[in-house]
Amino acid sequence: MKLTTRLSSIALTLCTAAHAQDPFLLAPTIVEAERVEDEPAAVSVISPQSLELFQASSFSDLTGIVPGFNVVSADSRGYGQVVTMRGSTNTLFFGPPALGLTIDDVPLGHAFSYPSELLEMEEVRVYRGPQGPNFGRNGPAGMVEIFTPRPGEKFAGSFTTEYGSYDHVGLGLQTSGPLGGDFSHTLQLFHDQRDGYVRNTFLGDETDDREATGGLFNLFWNPSDDFELRLRYYGEFVNDGSQRLSSLSSADPFNDSSDFRGATDLERHQLSIHSRKDFDWGKMETITSYQTWDLDPSTVDLDLTNGTTPWAGFAGPPLAGSPADARSAITQTQDVVSNEIRFSSGEESPLRWQAGLFQMWIDNEGTAVRTTAVPFPPAFFPFTPIVNDTTRFDIEQLNLATFGNVTWQMNDSLALDAGLRIDYHETEIDRVKTDITTATNIVRGSDDDMFVSPVVGLTYAITPTLDGFVRSSIGNKPGGFTAFVDSANGPEFERETNWSNEIGLQYDNPDEDLRIGVRAFWDQIDDYQFNQSVPFSTDFAVVNADEVTSRGIELDLAWTPIERLTIRSSLGYVNAEFDSYSAFGNNFNGKEVPFVPEYTGSTGIRYDFESGFFAQTSVRVAGSTRFDAANTGVFTQDAYALWDAEIGYATERFTIALFGRNLLDEEYYSFINPQIQAGSPGDPQLLGLRLRTIF
Length: 695
Prior knowledge:
Layout: H1 3-11, E1 44-46, H2 48-53, E2 69-72, E3 82-85, E4 99-103, E5 106-107, E6 123-128, E7 142-147, E8 156-164, E9 168-180, E10 183-194, E11 199-200, E12 205-206, E13 210-224, E14 227-240, E15 246-247, E16 255-256, E17 263-278, E18 282-301, H3 318-321, E19 325-345, E20 351-373, E21 386-409, E22 414-435, E23 439-463, E24 466-477, E25 480-481, E26 492-493, E27 496-509, E28 514-533, E29 540-559, E30 565-580, E31 582-583, E32 586-587, E33 599-608, E34 613-622, E35 625-626, E36 636-637, E37 640-650, E38 654-661, E39 669-673, E40 678-681, E41 686-694
Parallel strand pairs: 4-7, 11-16
Antiparallel strand pairs: 1-6, 2-3, 4-5, 6-7, 8-9, 8-41, 9-10, 10-13, 11-12, 13-14, 14-17, 15-40, 17-18, 18-19, 19-20, 20-21, 21-22, 22-23, 23-24, 24-27, 25-26, 27-28, 28-29, 29-30, 30-33, 31-32, 33-34, 34-37, 35-36, 37-38, 38-41, 39-40
């Protein structure tokens, strides 16, 4: 039975949420943790001021700001990115995310559809560890909530313009406020563009230029204090050049000699309806959303050469048998329909509770073409063989869930938190691959699964300013199918289960303007989902490593030692290793899990002068990161540090600032692809000027 048929039968019983976000205007980061009366355990709360302090303008910029969190960015607007939390990751293209994401209560689909850039935000909340009982969207390793600003009682607006290195131009317009009657609104419009960073020596220009335009609109209707209806739309149009890639053997990572100009063209549309009704006993909320993410196309030169390499001393195919010309072209669409209804108690009750129903349907449909041309010497072949591998796929997924949690304030010092999530997950695949050798390879199948995810935790107020907490939980990441593998190599992968445990202390003293948090965690992950290239083929499988253990420590600090001086700092150490994993005849026991930095951290300092001038500086660091299961040295990014700074002048209505990012021009790779022995170099040194006026 098709998932769409089953979806129609249950959609009437649920109400849900949706929306996603993308670019412009960020600010640094402040890490806070809630007290026992607000949350059962510590949670990182990142304010707009904190985002500004660290000049966080993209989703990946949260790396270092949030302990235990990291984004491996392939510089393709999120497509192929890996988002990690405490050693748990998503797979590149078809596996479910380990870290769930909602924006204004709207859940996003797969991690490749997460935003690359960020709009103006009101708050970011990061929850660590499995969060299934607390959200409609499944968060087997954690959750990120992003909230954009709501309208005030008066009309307000701002206009921001930015110009910087590589002819970067950024424009942003924001308005909010009443529209008359019981209606109000918020509006954000943006345009962002720049020239490329990577010089193509063969084509004679920079091909990785970037351009994005979009907007977010919210319409609120508040006929009474106890009822709200909200209509939300977000749209984005991306017209990017080639993916930022260069050969690992290149003397300059910002040079390549590709003969093919790649492109990434992308559209996002999200429409959601939200309602809230307050009662004497609590409130009811519903969120219904539809989202579409359309990649058309993503084209990449896989060999990064121009085919002019001479065959000096040649006795076989060029480059030891490697293809002289290899290209990839992918078109893909993701449609997401989600519904959520949740009920929650009043905040004053000593027994607080939340319960809800959730439904999400995801359809990934696309075509991937890999073209290979191998020019043999004329003595062997008087022509250039062209090989095309074409994969057409349609993968549907349905998730139905019920969830709930209770927090019992047992006395003035002790709070107990317990929750449970029950999931039903179903997936289907229809995939056809054609190539020069196998002609046609068809994969069709379906699978369903039901699982339970419990959580229990205790928080104890040791003193009025010091809390201790302990938490144990289980997170389940459902299995599924991957389209980039033949039936012989196994397109199906199994469910991943994470038993997570943490203990910590949180010191919060408003009189001293000081917050310090420390946490230790131990996660035992069974059937760890992991990408693995298949030898002697173009297949890219999702496999299950039998067992992974991830341990670590997290620290964060927010301090205002004197008036006008702000200090924010964080550090996360993660040791994630394969305990039991073998694939294609290789044993990887004891090896570090790819895509997970050994540590991440940041420190930011800002001083605001009485005259209106301000100065701030920040440093973000990342430890060594492996990009293959064998931990090969050439596929490892060594530890690096990025230094940013900003100076400016601000009044009530106007701000001007000079900023610099990566001021030491540190060279590093944000992503390494072992299969093609190439990497995405991180942003070079960037300088710019920002102007903002408020009206």
